[in-house]
Amino acid sequence: MILVFCELKDGQIRKPSAEALSEGRRLADASGKKVGALFAGASCAGAAEAAKFGADVILTAEGATLASYSSDAFAQLLADAVKAKGATVLLAAATAVGKDVLPRAAARLGAGYASDVTGLSMADGKLQAVRPVYAGKAFATTTFSSAVQTATTRPNVFPAAEKAGAGAVETLAAPAGDFKSVVKEILAKAGGKVDLSEANVIVSGGRGMKDGANFKILEELADALGGVVGASRAAVDAGWGLPHSMQVGQTGKVVSPTLYIACGISGAIQHIAGMSGSKFIVAINKDPEAPIFKLANYGIVGDLFEVVPELTKAAKAMGIGQN
Amino acid sequence: MKILVALKQVPDTETKIKVAADGKSLDPADVKWITSPYDEYALEEAIRLKEGKGAEVVALSVGGDTAKDVLKNALALGADSAVLLKGDGQGDAFAVAQMIAAYAKDKGFDLILCGNKGLGGDNAAMGPMLAELLGIAQANVIVKLELGEGTFKAEREIEGGSEIVEGALPAVITAQKGLNEPRYASLKGIMAAKKKTIEELDAAAVTAGAQVSALALPPERPAGRLLQGDAAQQAQALLQALKDEAKVF
Ligand SMILES: Cc1cc2nc3c(=O)[nH]c(=O)nc-3n(C[C@H](O)[C@H](O)[C@@H](O)COP(=O)(O)OP(=O)(O)OC[C@H]3O[C@@H](n4cnc5c(N)ncnc54)[C@H](O)[C@@H]3O)c2cc1C
Ligand SMILES: Cc1cc2nc3c(=O)[nH]c(=O)nc-3n(C[C@H](O)[C@H](O)[C@H](O)COP(=O)(O)OP(=O)(O)OC[C@H]3O[C@@H](n4cnc5c(N)ncnc54)[C@H](O)[C@@H]3O)c2cc1C
After folding, report:
1. A247 and A293 co-located in one domain
2. Which residues on chain A are in Cβ contact (under 8 Å) with B156?
3. In which domain, by residue range, is A278 found?
4. What percent of chain A has pLDDT over 90?
5. Quick check: CB of A270 below 6 Å from ligand 2?
6. Helix, strand or coil for residue B244?
7. Which of the residues in chain B have pLDDT under 70?
8. Buried/exposed code over B109-147 (b: 16+ C-beta within 10 A; e: otherwise)
9. A187, B161: Cβ pair inside 8 Å?
10. Is residue A182 part of a domain?
């Protein structure tokens, strides 16, 4: 079996989890295996949706002890489920929780782990993963020598394809409690907007924005395109009041949107490290020699303060982002 | 209190990546090696705890002879002692975790500080694996850390915000940018470090879980296209191209 740990948000499967589950389904089809989706929490209402993304079996662990995330409790739950089901592959999305729990579960299982992968394949029951390394300047193919093989999938890379699965529900016992560490409080929740790492369209601003208040024109463009706003480190560090959570790059978020629009960003290697996985890159910069143009599918040499409002206007006129 | 800091030597980001003749490793020629930046936050936090509450700080790296530079630097910054676990430079995060676990298990460390990810390798895995192998608590991607009596409280970055993790010591804590501002080594520190020796041990024999079977440069991105005209025309042409050619919308 291929077991996929899935996260719920407001009673729905999180998009990165749906992507991981769909990828699990594809691997299972290629290797004649079954797919299990594993959920854990105070309530697993909404888990049934996993059948839509190809789950043959839906495993749910519900209980008060699972209301708050605990690395050791969740790792134990995952490892126990792998053993109980005889699973040979364990996947999760490379989210904050996925990246926290999978390596711990892997160590518990004596399993190899590939993090934040952008490609997976399976031959003769052996998983093979491709992942970017060295700031996206190279790709490493990872193979496993352990019996159980584990990986986290980078959000926005694998399509979440609907494919009906049997979706037979089985319940797992929730652990008793007395965990080594537990989340006590969530400090700031995204104000309704999707996180950068999950966004389909990102409009990013750099030092060329000149001031934090000018990010308003990026917000307007992002809204028109159905996207969110990011920033370079130079912008975040400039004291313009932009939070570090907006930063894209080596020391910020690694993003893989369908469309990345870089406005007033030169394209330093550390910035590229965070966005070179974008499917389409647009650069808007007044300097035709800016390195970002080497990466861009489409470039506009010009003043962003003129171009960005025109883009917003044109996007609204064309009705983009409305569907 | 006894603190272990795991420091990894990594290629500088500016390094031009060349694949070695074996087709699966980095060509080490012309590589400038540095301490992984997140590990610098880990070390700084340990030194601040030492200055604040008093602690013994042990710096550790798994690697070859060149990794001694990382440890010398750690000693200059204020680590009390340094250990090099020597290996052939092969192996995954799980192999490294087993080596460090074998070293640390009977030494009574109250706190193990790591980077949240090793620059370049980016697995973000060694810390949580080590915590599991030692059977202790973990908290990853930490931007704020407070210690109590046998307990810790840490702020961890998550999507769209942060969360507070509480747990029992001993624990593995992995550092994120924002935890602190690492200091530079003082001349006094550098001189003092010269008198200290690096303990060299053979790393425990372990079995890796995964290996890199091929390393390849990314495919060249197709040459881009510059959009012409005034701002309004450029905007129109861009959206049209994104719609018709790229099919983004
Ligand atoms: C004996 C041996 C020597 C190696 N020597 C090197 C080397 O010199 N340079 C290199 O690039 N790779 C080396 N490797 C490979 C590399 O360390 C592993 O692939 C693995 O650690 C994954 O790297 P990562 O950066 O993705 O780890 P991550 O899981 O992202 O690392 C997270 C954190 O774990 C700690 N950590 C990770 N690796 C080490 C380490 N080797 N020593 C101390 N702390 C560590 C650091 O605090 C790091 O911030 C070596 C492996 C072995 C088994
Ligand atoms: C260890 C380390 C980690 C780092 N991590 C990150 C990271 O995670 N993310 C990151 O982004 N950086 C990171 N950096 C910093 C990186 O090296 C660059 O300094 C940074 O990315 C530059 O940001 P920028 O492109 O916004 O600014 P600049 O390089 O100053 O570029 C500004 C651009 O705006 C253009 N411009 C100015 N005005 C206009 C206008 N009116 N219209 C159009 N264009 C205009 C200019 O032509 C220029 O190209 C890191 C650096 C180090 C050393």
Report:
1. yes
2. 96
3. 196-318
4. 92
5. yes
6. helix
7. 89
8. bbbbbbbbbbbbbbbbbbbbbbbbbbebbbbbbbbebeb
9. yes
10. no
A229 and A140 in a single domain? The answer is no
CA-based nearest residue to A236, from A223, A222, A250, A224? A250
Can you state the angle between helices A304-318 and B231-244, rounded to 10 degrees?
50
ipTM for the predicted complex? 0.95
CA distances from A47 to A9, A29, A101, A166, B114 (A): 10, 21, 19, 13, 35
Same domain (yes/no): A158, A304? no
Residues A82 and A155 in one domain: yes
Contacts of A44 (CB under 8 A, 6+ apart): A8, A60, A61, A62
Parallel/antiparallel/unpaired status of strands A112-117 and A89-93: unpaired
How many other β-carbons are positioned within 10 Å of the β-carbon of residue A43? Answer: 14
Average the pLDDT over A279-287 and give the result: 97
Task: Give pLDDT tens digits for B31-43.
Answer: 999 999 999 999 9
CATH number, domain B2-202: 3.40.50.620
Determine the residue of chain B that is closest to A320 in CA distance.
Answer: B249
Number of domains composing chain A: 2
**Domain shared by A161 and A283, yes or no:** no
Please tell me if the CB atom of residue A207 comes closer than 6 angstroms to any atom of ligand 2. yes
CB contact under 8 A, B140 and A107: no
Q: Tell me the pTM.
A: 0.93
Residues A163 and A210 in one domain: no
CB contacts < 8 A, A to B, total 275
Q: Let me know: does B153 contact B19? Beta carbons within 8 Å.
A: no
Confidence label for A323 from pLDDT (cuts 50, 70 and 90): very low
Which helix H or strand E contains A168, and what residues bound it? strand A168-172
pLDDT of residue B15: 85
CATH number, domain of A299, equals 3.40.50.1220
| One domain, residues A162 and A201 | no
